[in-house]
Amino acid sequence: MATISVNNVSKIYGDTVALDDVSFEISDGEFVVLLGPSGAGKSTLLRILNGLTTPTEGTVEFNGQVVDSMPTSDVGMVFQMHYLVEGLSAYKNALSGALSRSSTVGSLLNRFSEEDKRMALEALDTVGLLEEADQRASSMSGGQQQRVGIARALTQNPELLLADEPVASLDPKAAQDVMEYMRRAAMDRNLTSIVSLHQVNIAREFGDRFIGLNEGELIFDGDRDELTMDVVDRIYYGDETVQSDEGIQHI
Ligand SMILES: Nc1ncnc2c1ncn2[C@@H]1O[C@H](COP(=O)(O)OP(=O)(O)OP(=O)(O)O)[C@@H](O)[C@H]1O
Question: Residue 11: beta bridge partners?
């Protein structure tokens, strides 16, 4: 539902170049995984794409239009820490996703339309939690809570879904489940998605396309077949790799 164009984007914080002349385009409905070591610039890129910060240089186009700041109501965000209201039910947490597109008065009064309510239930169904709709978030497992976080983002009815290390704090089985639901939700809704992940095996399983960052530079952009172990090493260790008879080594 959204096309994104990142054109020569740099982000500089004091002496730190968090992003260095990064360019790429994402088509409607693509499921893109961002890879890179800690400090590579993944969160900075996601923060630019969800309108929380602006580039120092370069531009971002959203559906063909250059935007000064991304229209936040069109961008759904899933965080590593889901930030649910623990005392509220899964349903009420999901419904709160509708606030970002309601009128200010509606939001203040916490009034939701029938359409908002229908969308929250549909989103819970998408993440396999319809039967748990009335359960308090605090009584759910980490994986279920993260799925409620996804449902909340879906209730916003975004054009772009961003997720910043959504499974980093989950065990492998829960991580797998959460990624499966997110992937299915994106496919069902043809939702353009960008997900940063640390786990390369999970990334390979769920991504269509992979963008690798290292020290703020885009050093890889390709599909699963192109994401070889050699490429993964380059993404994580940069140029500090040498090929020897024993294979790749790090210096
Ligand atoms: N608000 C900020 N002020 C100053 N420096 C920042 C700020 N945000 C990010 N940085 C710096 O920019 C660089 C990129 O950070 P970023 O958080 O984007 O990396 P990351 O790839 O998301 O890392 P991680 O996987 O650890 O979250 C780092 O050197 C970081 O210290």
Answer: 19
pLDDT digits (tens, 9 = 90+) for 198-215: 889 999 999 999 999 999
Asked if residue 106 has its Cβ within 6 Å of ligand 1, the reply is no
Atom of ligand 1 nearest to the CA of 198: 25
Q: Detail the DSSP E strand segments found in 27-180.
A: 31-35, 57-62, 65-67, 75-78, 160-164
CA distance to 70, 201, 214, 223, 230, per residue, from 248 (Å): 40, 19, 18, 21, 7
pTM, whole model, 2 decimals? Answer: 0.90
Is the CB of residue 207 below 6 angstroms from any atom belonging to ligand 1? no
Q: pLDDT of 146-158, one tens digit each?
A: 999 999 999 999 9
Q: Kindly report, residue by residue over 50-68, the tens digit of the pLDDT.
A: 888 999 999 999 988 888 7
ipTM: 0.96
Nearest C-alpha to atom 4 of ligand 1 is from which residue? 13
Is there a contact between 36 and 213 (Cβ–Cβ < 8 Å)? yes
CA atoms within 13 A on the CB side of 144: 18
SS3 88: coil
How far apart are alpha carbons 17 and 164 in whole angstroms?
A: 20
Calpha distance 251→247 (Å, rounded)? 13
For 17, half-sphere exposure in the C-beta direction (CA atoms, 13 angstrom radius) is 13
Residue nearest to atom 8 of ligand 1 (CA): 44
